[in-house]
């Protein structure tokens, strides 16, 4: 089962998101700000982080940057959510949605991002296999 970390400083928003994600079949973790989210990310593996842009203490944008700079948690798909018209240009997020959330569109985007990410990793694995093939053949010849 895929796990999502939902981050928002509004308890009612967080509850609504959590209920929708649970009904859609996700395991759910919640945090009220970026600091709580970072603590959870270091103790629990997640597939997705859905975070509000504007939060006290640590914004969703800063959370995303801290995640991307930490190799141990950088691989989670990060979707930023905000009431603002345009997404921030400086943040390395995977998706951006405006509030109020269109949950059907969000879940479809998450599915597409997961599929794309898996294809990239599969491609990297195949590239490594092909790149190492001549070395493996020469080792086998020298052993034989």
Question: Can you walk through the features of this model?
Answer:
- This is Response regulator receiver domain-containing protein.
- The modification 4-aspartylphosphate is found at residue 52.
- Residues 3-114 form the Response regulatory domain.
- Keywords: Phosphoprotein.
- This protein is α/β, with parallel strands linked by helices.
- It has a single domain, classed as 3-Layer(aba) Sandwich (Rossmann fold), CATH 3.40.50.
- Helix content is 51%, strand content 17%.
- A five-stranded parallel sheet has the order 2-1-3-4-5, sandwiched between helices.
Keywords:
144 residues, globular, phosphoprotein, Rossmann fold, 17% strand, CheY-like_superfamily, Response regulator receiver domain-containing protein, Sig_transdc_resp-reg_receiver, Bact_response_regulator, alpha/beta
Q: How large is the share of residues in beta strands?
A: 15-25%
Assembly state here?
single chain
Q: Could you describe the largest sheet, including whether it forms a barrel?
A: 5 strands, parallel
Q: What name does the CATH topology carry?
A: Rossmann fold
CATH homologous superfamily?
Response regulator
- N-to-C SSE string, H for helix and E for strand: EHEHEHEEH
Q: Given the structure, what is the number of helices?
A: 4
Percentage of residues in helical conformation: 40-55%
Tell me the count of domains.
Answer: 1
Structural class, by secondary structure, is: alpha/beta
Gyration radius, rounded: 19 Å
Protein name: Response regulator receiver domain-containing protein
Modified residues (4-aspartylphosphate): 52
Domain Response regulatory: 3-114
InterPro entries: Bact_response_regulator, CheY-like_superfamily, Sig_transdc_resp-reg_receiver
């Amino acid at each position: 089962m895929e796990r999502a970390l939902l981050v928002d400083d509004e308890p009612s928003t967080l509850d609504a998101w959590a209920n929708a994600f649970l009904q859609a079949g996700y395991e759910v973790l919640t945090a009220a700000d970026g600091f709580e989210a970072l603590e959870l990310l270091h103790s629990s593996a997640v597939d997705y982080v859905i975070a509000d842009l504007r939060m006290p203490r640590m914004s969703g944008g800063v959370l995303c940057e801290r995640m991307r700079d930490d190799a141990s948690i950088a691989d989670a798909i990060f979707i930023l959510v905000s009431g603002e018209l345009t997404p921030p240009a400086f943040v390395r997020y995977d998706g951006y949605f405006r509030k109020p959330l269109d949950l059907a569109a969000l879940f479809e985007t998450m599915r597409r991002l997961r599929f794309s990410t898996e294809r990239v990793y599969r491609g990297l694995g195949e590239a490594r296999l092909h790149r190492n093939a001549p070395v493996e053949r020469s080792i086998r010849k020298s052993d034989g």
